[in-house]
Amino acid sequence: MEDTSEKVYCFEIAEDQEDERIDKCLSTLIDSLSRSFIQKLIRDEAVTVNESPVRGSYRVKAEDRICFRLPKAVEPSVVPENIPLDILYEDKDIIVVNKPKGMVVHPAAGHYSGTLVNALLYHCGKELSGINGVLRPGIVHRIDRDTTGSVIVCKNDMAHHSIAQQLKEHSVTRRYHAVCYGRLKDQEGVIDKPIGRHPSDRKRMAVNEKNGKAAVTHYRVLKYFSGYTYIECELETGRTHQIRVHMASIGHPLLGDEVYSARKCPFRLQGQTLHAKILGFCHPASGEYIETDAPLPEYFNNLLKILV
Predict the structure, then answer these.
(1) Is-contact 28 13, C-beta < 8 A?
(2) Alpha helices of 11-139 — where are they, by DSSP H?
(3) Which terminal CB of the chain, N or C, has fewer other CB atoms within 10 Å?
């Protein structure tokens, strides 16, 4: 049975908030909710001011009491799907998969099928850790939809806790191969810049000195091409879009990146040229160090041949 219980929020407006539009005021008070979502709540008459439903054009007054009902989210069921997996390593505790381009790691709005989780549920059955809930069973870290390469998935909670702790301690080896625009001046370097949400675009990340979290990327040149550089990046931390944001921040965005580069890609690519090649960790049960190496995908190899 679905849980239809609702959560109620109530706020009293302060003098310095007076005359703001109600949707803007609420999005400031609750930064986890988008302004468009709040506007939908208002249209659905789920928001009241002094116990009366309110319109979206309403401007708040000092001492107004604003309340709204937030329906409890109901997680949809995730269906196992017979999707082939490129398995790099597997035992009773963990599985390391070479994720293809275009595949989302776990279900989310707009992507409830065709994900890595759908494929894992078919392959592993119920042998996946449940710490992250029904939408993300076994998932302890992720890579972007158009980034290819190694993802480690945990089959039980013991393994999940172990890998999560290693990620927290930055002891997991994560080396990516990428092609960036331009010719890097130095053969190797370190980018140490905090990353947080973009101040005006919630879907993007950015170097954010004020509100960002520490982020460190080590890079080294593998090969120079005319107008491009083939690089290896090793993550010291694992922030969202870290390599993409860091390389763009030094003037060398990744080839094909349509989010962090304004340059038009001259090749027929699907998103950024980024591949999670090396993944190394201590096995949750034995403590043995394991390192997997995901072969470059066909599109990446073909691109390197073209660039020579």
Answers:
(1) no
(2) 22-29, 35-43, 116-124
(3) N
Structure tokens at 223: 């090969």
Structure tokens at 4: 């239809």
- Cβ–Cβ under 8 Å, residues 95 and 286: no
Nearest C-alpha neighbor of 53 from the set 62, 61, 44: 44
Q: What predicted TM-score, i.e. pTM, was given to this entire model?
A: 0.77
Q: How does pLDDT run across 90-136, given as a tens digit for each residue?
A: 999 999 999 999 999 988 766 788 999 999 999 998 889 987 777 78
Which position has the higher pLDDT, 150 or 61?
A: 150
pLDDT tens digit sequence for 251-271:
999 999 999 999 999 999 999
Alpha helices in 8-115 (DSSP H): 22-29, 35-43
**Other residues' Cβ atoms within 10 Å of the Cβ of residue 108:** 11
Write down the catalytic residue from 23, 64, 93, 144: 144
Q: Assess whether pLDDT exceeds 90 at residue 217.
A: yes
- Alpha carbon of 17 to those of 32, 39, 65, 199: distances in Å? 19, 18, 12, 20
**Beta partners for residue 59, in sequence order:** 21
Place of tokens 């080396």: 175
Known catalytic membership, residue 144:
yes
- The maximal CA–CA distance of the chain, rounded, in angstroms, is 69
Helix (H, G, I), strand (E, B) or coil at 23: helix
Q: Using CA atoms, how far apart are residues 100 and 116, in angstroms rounded to an integer?
A: 9
State which amino acid sits at residue 259: V
Give me the pLDDT at residue 72, please: 65
d(CA 64, CA 47): 12
Residue type, 247: M
Strands 94-99 and 148-154, how do they pair?
antiparallel
Whether 38 contacts 23, CB under 8 Å: yes
